């Protein structure tokens, strides 16, 4: 079958080509299917009409150099109604000028001062949790380790009580499925219910800040103002739910996936312990090697050519971060896990105007966790046969038992 909308000499046959995103085993073993896709169909038209890019240079072109956005040229988010699109105000779902206005206002709360204050607030939580599991002799990487630093930073940023971390993590996990209405239709009811519950939860915190102004990031968001402009109630609520989701889910996934990588490559874990100065490059390598957010997307605002194929205007194009991060055209021995790697140009935080606003915080959380675990534990062995993924759109372990010895 020749697809609709392709031009040039290349014919494109729609298909998943072994990389069907609704298959759970694609979360567990993504790299071989995505490698095959990158090699055989680097510009792939899926059966549901989306396009997927898996080569590094195409992903970079889409995110940084194409005329594209999060919505089509009518302002509609793909898969959403016009009404839902109009009500959707998290910055990652918006285009300029609305996106830039909201990102500017929210960025005011992400000052270096605010972030500097968070580091020391996170560390005691991580140490305390490690002490607790050290006594037990076993841990669940997902619920005892990965969650701690991200939840502690959400405490410091948004004033969310640390005790609520498991409930909130489950809710944001479910809520992520709202981003892919078409891909996971059976998760939509749970996603809506989770968003409703999160909205009620965050509204209370926002009201509290209005009654009693605070210095944390949520407090600053309530008052953030530029040239007389402020976030409306609805905008504020959606940014805070979005930040909570972005702050928990992504980093919990990264730390969990990293621990699996370290368990498979114990020599790299020992190298980290012996050379804590390698922690920053270890964080970058884990972001590249096992990203928790395997993809992001854009809608093209004009016909655009990728690798000899012209994708038509208003198509939704998915940037396969996870495949681009292992493109041998850019990374030497891409399937080798090397925490000393110097090629730190992975795509895991996206690119262009939507580049992850929390990248510094994500690195900080992961850095603190890696240093603490490597200093305290050795012989870390994750039992992958008991791995359960969280009910999330992304690659986030929800259950991951592990054993270790004290160093
Ligand atoms: C390992 C952790 C993280 C990963 C892998 C990650 C990844 C991403 C990706 C892929 C995007 C979309 C970029 C694009 O489409 O070009 C994004 C956007 C975003 N992230 Fe992160 N993120 C992480 C942590 C965080 C944290 C901790 C926060 C804040 C608390 C955060 C806040 C945001 C926000 C606000 C956006 C939207 C930016 C915009 O639309 O302008 N992220 N992130």
Task: Please give a structural write-up.
The chain has 407 residues and is an alpha+beta fold. The chain has one domain (25-406): Cytochrome p450 (Orthogonal Bundle). Helices cover 49% and strands 12% of the residues. The longest helix has 32 residues, at 233-264. The protein binds protoporphyrin IX containing FE. Protoporphyrin IX containing FE (HEM) binds next to helix 12 and helix 16. Protoporphyrin IX containing FE binds next to helix 12 and helix 16.
Note poorly predicted spans: 1-5
CATH topology: Cytochrome p450
Number of strands: 14
The computed structural class is: alpha+beta
Broad CATH class: Mainly Alpha
Share of helix among residues?
Answer: 40-55%
* Gap between N and C termini: 59 Å
Proportion of β residues? 5-15%
* Major pleated sheet: 5 strands, mixed
Backbone CA Rg: 21 Å
Question: What compounds sit in this structure?
Answer: protoporphyrin IX containing FE
DSSP helical segment count: 16
Whole-number count of domains = 1
Please give the structural blueprint.
Layout: H1 25-28, H2 31-40, E1 43-45, E2 51-53, H3 56-65, E3 68-69, H4 82-87, H5 98-107, H6 112-136, E4 138-140, H7 141-146, H8 148-158, H9 165-175, H10 188-211, H11 217-223, E5 225-226, E6 229-230, H12 233-264, H13 266-274, H14 279-289, E7 295-300, E8 304-306, E9 309-311, E10 316-320, H15 321-324, H16 359-376, E11 377-382, E12 388-389, E13 397-399, E14 401-406
Parallel strand pairs: 2-10
Antiparallel strand pairs: 1-2, 3-7, 4-14, 5-6, 7-10, 8-9, 11-14, 12-13
The protein binds protoporphyrin IX containing FE.
Residues 63, 91-92, 103, 243, 246-247, 250-251, 254, 291-293, 296, 348-352, 354-358, 361-362 line the site of protoporphyrin IX containing FE (HEM).
């Amino acid at each position: 079958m020749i697809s609709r909308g392709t031009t040039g000499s290349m014919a494109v046959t729609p298909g998943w080509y072994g990389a069907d995103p609704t298959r759970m085993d694609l979360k567990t073993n993504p790299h071989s299917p995505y490698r095959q896709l990158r090699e055989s169909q680097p510009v792939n038209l899926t059966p549901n009409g989306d396009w997927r890019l898996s080569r590094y240079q195409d992903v970079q072109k889409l995110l940084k150099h194409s005329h594209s956005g999060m919505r089509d040229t009518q302002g509609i988010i793909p898969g959403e109604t016009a009404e839902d699109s109009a009500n959707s105000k998290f910055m990652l779902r918006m285009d300029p000028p609305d996106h830039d206005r909201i990102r500017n206002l929210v960025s005011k709360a992400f000052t270096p001062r605010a972030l500097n204050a968070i580091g020391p607030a996170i560390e005691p939580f991580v140490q305390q949790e490690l002490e607790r599991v050290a006594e037990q002799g076993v841990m669940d990487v997902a619920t005892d380790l990965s969650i701690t630093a991200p939840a502690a930073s959400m405490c410091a940023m948004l004033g969310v009580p640390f005790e609520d971390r498991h409930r909130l993590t489950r809710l944001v996990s479910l809520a992520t499925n709202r981003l892919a209405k078409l891909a996971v239709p059976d998760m939509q009811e749970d996603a809506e219910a989770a968003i409703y519950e999160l909205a009620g939860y965050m509204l209370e915190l926002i009201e509290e800040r209005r009654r009693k102004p605070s210095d944390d990031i949520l407090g600053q968001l309530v008052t953030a103002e530029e040239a007389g402009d402020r976030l409306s109630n609805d905008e504020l609520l959606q940014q805070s739910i979005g930040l909570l989701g972005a702050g928990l889910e992504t980093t919990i996934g990264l730390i969990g996936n990293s621990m699996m990588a370290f368990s498979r490559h114990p020599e790299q874990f020992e190298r980290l312990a012996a050379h804590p100065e390698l922690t920053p490059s270890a964080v970058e390598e884990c972001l590249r090697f096992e990203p928790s957010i395997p993809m992001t997307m854009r809608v093209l605002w004009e016909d655009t050519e990728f690798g000899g194929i012209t994708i038509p205007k208003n198509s939704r194009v998915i940037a396969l971060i996870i495949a681009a991060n292992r493109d041998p055209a850019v990374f030497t021995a891409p399937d080798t896990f090397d925490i000393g790697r110097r090629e730190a140009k992975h795509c895991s935080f996206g690119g262009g105007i939507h580049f992850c606003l929390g990248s510094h915080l994500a690195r900080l959380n992961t850095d603190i966790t890696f240093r603490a675990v490597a200093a305290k534990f050795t012989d870390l062995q994750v039992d992958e046969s008991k791995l359960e993924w969280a009910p999330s759109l992304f690659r986030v372990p929800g259950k991951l038992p592990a054993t270790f010895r004290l160093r």
